[in-house]
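Example 9 (inverse folding). The structure is encoded as follows.
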């Protein structure tokens, strides 16, 4: 089950396309944003984002079975 703060931590970087700006909006560290995203990806068994050069890009999740 996904917690409310996890949902916010997923949605905010998707809107900002930047972990540090998302962390600032959420009042947490960029590391916390990254850890939460990684935990959600493990739960969903899908990669949700790709971060390179401090920029975030959403990925396409495989269709649900």
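The amino acid assigned to each position is listed next.
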């Amino acid at each position: 089950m996904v917690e409310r703060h996890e949902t916010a931590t997923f949605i905010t970087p998707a809107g900002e396309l930047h972990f540090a700006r998302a962390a600032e909006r959420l009042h947490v560290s960029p590391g916390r944003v990254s850890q939460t995203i990684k935990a959600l990806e493990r739960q969903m068994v899908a990669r949700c984002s790709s971060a390179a050069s401090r920029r975030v890009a959403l990925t396409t999740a495989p269709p649900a079975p």
